[in-house]
Give the backbone structure.
Amino acid sequence: MTPQLHLLNWGMGVESTAILVRWMLEHQSRPFDSFQNLIVLTAQTGDEMDETKYLCETHLFPLMRAHQVRLVQVAKASASKLDGYIILSDTQQPYELHTEGYFPLSRDLLQSGTVPRLGRPHICAQRWKGEVLDAWISDHISEGFGPYLGYNVDETKRAGKADGYTCQGHPFLYPLIAWGWTRDDCIEYLYRSLGVLRRKSACSYCPFQQKQAALAKLNEVIARYNRDPKAAV
């Protein structure tokens, strides 16, 4: 039986955005009948690239407003888990992507005198995203729901690891894997649908951008920093 409530963990990047856009544009792709049953939930670290904000506000949000898609933006209240989270926005008419967050990850890194780690576990993602999202869900959702993640068909191993966890006891669902979509399929779909080239969502200083550079994507990373010199610094 299809869950009554559907919760998309929206990372603001290519894959999860492709899921959302296809759901809005293609009725047959939706696992629900009404957008009243969908919640798009995202956690803001406070250090997202400026171009992500521009792309979402300019090309995605008008479509979300037209379909009255509920978007909830949350952020960590402080470095301590005990202080919980802040709700930055909860609306069916989103206009602003609150990339400023509330207590930015970068502030914690500076105060602690450390940098993000490249190896596992990914502490920054767990603390500034996972913990915040889980806390909001615990406080606001009591019924059964389907939690959706944007893992693509080339990430079945990653999805297998995620299957070892649950979202408040509910197993994760992977629309892109079910559709057989790769990351390139997502990029192409967003370009055809919105007329823009979506890029990776990430904190400006995320070490995984440098990891991508080591994987023959150096020019893409340099071009991104040229567009946002402040982030490069």
About this structure: The CA atoms of residues 79 and 107 lie 9 Å apart. Residues 207-227 form the longest helix (21 residues). The two ends are 50 Å apart (CA to CA). The chain has one domain: 5-199.
